[in-house]
Amino acid sequence: MFKEEVELIDEYEVIKGLVGVVIVRDRKTGLYLYNVIEPILSDNAGKVLTKSREVLRMSNKLPEGNDVEGYLRSLINEVMSRLRIRLSDDELKGVMYYLLRDTVGYGKIDPLIRDDYIEDVNVNGPNKPVYVWHSRYEHLRTNIILSHDELGSLIVKISQRIGKNVSSAYPILEGLLPEGLRVELGLRDVSPYGPIITIRKFRANPITVIDLIIDGVINAEVAATLWFMLENGINMVIIGPTGAGKTTLLNALLFLIRPEARIVTIEDTREINLPHEQWVPLVTRESETPGVQNVTAYDLVKVSMRIRPDYLVIGELRGEEAYVFFQGLASGHNGLTTIHASSLNAAVRRLMAKPMNVPPALIPLINVFILINRVKVGGRIVRRVIDVTELLDIARGSLKTNTLFRWNKDKDAIVKLGDSALIADLIRMGRVSQEEVDTELKRRGEIMKAMARYGFRSPEAVFRVTRNYYIDPERTYRAVVSGELP
Q1: Beta carbons within 8 Å of 181's beta carbon, 6+ residues apart
Q2: For residue range 280-316, what is the model confidence (pLDDT) as tens digits?
Q3: pLDDT over 90 for what percent of the chain?
C-alpha cells in the first residue's frame, strides 16, 4: 500500500466508512505526514457532483435549520434524473459527503476540524500545505493545499459565520465559530505571503479532572489536594507554555467548586464551560464602530468586583487587569487564573513587569503555582502537571517557596515532596483540624481513584459527585468507592 520511502505510523477513521487519516513517516527526512483519505468518486458520481455544485452556485442559497441534508438529497436526485444517471448507495454517500463538506462544512479542511486528535489547524497561505497540531504527534504537514480561490472562499465563509467583516481596512479577524472553534485570521495586508488562518479547537464537553487522571496528566492525590485548597480559599495560578493545557486544567478544577458558589469568569474568547447555576461568564469586546465602547479585561475585572463573586476567574492574565485582579484577592475574593510562563520565577517576573505592574507585596496572594507542560514519554508527546508549588513570600526579590508535588520523568509519575504550609496555616488559625485535613485528603483521593477506575469521567458525573459530596461526604464516598454514582 505504501512506498518504501514512507513508514506507516497510524491510521484511523474520522467519518466512518467515508473519511480516514493515514499518518506516515518519511524515511528520508524523518518527518511525520498527515494524509486525509476521502472518497474516490466514479465518473458518473463525479458528473453528478459537478452538476449539483453548479446548481447550488446558481441558486446561491441553502434552507435554514436542519433540512440541509434533505434539500441536498433532493437536489442530487433531481440532477441524476436530468443526467439520466443512477448511482449506488456508496456513490450517493460520496457525493453527499462532498456537498455537505463544501456547504455546511469548511471545504477541504473540514476533515481536520472533525478529527478529535487535531487541536490546531494552520493555513499559512495559498498553495502551501496546511499544517495541524496533533495531540499524539504534534506538528504535522497534511496533504491538503488550498488554492487562492479556495482560501478566499474559506475566509468569506469564516467571516460570515463569526459575524464580523474582514477587509483591507480591518485585515485582522478574531472570533468564535458556531462550533466553538476559535479563529485568528490575517489578510495579505498584514501577511505578505497571503492570508493566514489559525483555527483552535475546543471540546463541546469539557475535559474533567477524572479525564486528566485517567490520561496521567495529574494524579488523584494532587487533584484531592487542589480540591481541598479550592474549598478553603487558597488562590491558584496555572502556568505553562502555549498549548500546554492551562485552560483545560483550569476548567477541570473549577468543576470541584461548591455548586452554589458565585463564579465570575473573564475571557477574551469563551473557552470555560461550567454547570454552576451562579456562573457569570464575561467576555471582552473589541469595537470597530465609532461611538461603540471597547470592553477590556480591565473593565470587566472592575465590574466583577461590584457583583461580589465567591471566585473570580480570569482565563489568562496578560495586561493591566492583573493589578485589579490582585486588589480583588487582597479584599478577600478567591481567584484562579493562568499565565503564559515556563516556570514560577518567570511567572512572577511577568507579574511585576509592564504591563501588569503587580507590586511584589501582593504577588504571594496567589498561593499556589501549578506548572503544566507537554513532555515526551515513550516516544509520545503527552501533557503532565510538572510541579505544584506554594509561594509563601517575596523578600528582597527572593522567592520563598514550598514544593508539594513534582513529576518524575523516569517513572512518569507525580511524586509528593512535602506537606502544605498553607494547609498548616489553616490548622493554626483553627479553620480546620489536622484530623479533618487527613480525613478529607484521604477520602477525596480515594473518590478520585474510584471515579477513574469506574469511568465516572463525564462532566455530568463529576459535577454530580462533587455536588453530593458537599451535601453528604461520607455517603457519597461509600457510593463512589462501591462503583455507584450517588
Answers
A1: 113, 199, 200, 201, 202
A2: 999 887 766 666 678 888 889 888 888 889 999 999 9
A3: 74
- Top pLDDT among 454 and 176 is at 454
Phi, psi of 345 (to 5 degrees): -60, -45
Nearest to 125 by CA among 193, 183, 174: 193
d(CA 234, CA 334): 7
* Cβ atoms of 342 and 241 closer than 8 Å: yes
DSSP 365: G
**Which of 363, 437, 458 shows the shortest CA–CA distance to 401?**
363
- DSSP annotation of 285 reads B
Going by C-alpha positions, the residue among 211, 233, 143, 183 that lies closest to residue 383 is 211
Evaluate if residue 119 carries a pLDDT over 60. Answer: yes
* Size of the chain in residues: 486
Q: Measured between alpha carbons, how far is residue 272 from residues 217, 250, 269, 276, 452 in Å?
A: 19, 8, 9, 12, 23
- Predicted local confidence at residue 65, as pLDDT: 60
Q: 274 and 254 in contact (C-beta within 8 Å)?
A: yes
| Minimum mean pLDDT range among 67-76, 313-322, 347-356 | 67-76
Determine the Cα–Cα distance for residues 446 and 468; give it in Å rounded to an integer: 15
Instruction: Write out pLDDT tens, residues 196-207.
Output: 999 988 766 789
CB 263 within 8 A of CB 288: no
**Location of C-alpha cell 513529576:** 407
> How many distinct helices (H) and strands (E) make up the chain?
15, 18
| Under 8 Å between Cβ of 34 and 143 | yes
Residue 39 has pLDDT above 50, yes or no: yes
CA separation for the pair 390, 235 (Å, rounded): 10
- Assess whether pLDDT exceeds 50 at residue 1: no
Determine the residue type at 71.
Answer: Y
CA–CA dist 158, 166 (Å, integer): 10
2 or 192: whose pLDDT is higher?
Answer: 192
Taking the C-alpha atoms of residue 55 and residue 406, their distance in angstroms, rounded to an integer, is 61
Name the burial class of residue 221, with classes exposed (0-12), middle (13-18) and buried (19+) by CB atoms within 10 angstroms of its CB: buried
Beta pairing partners, 399: 394
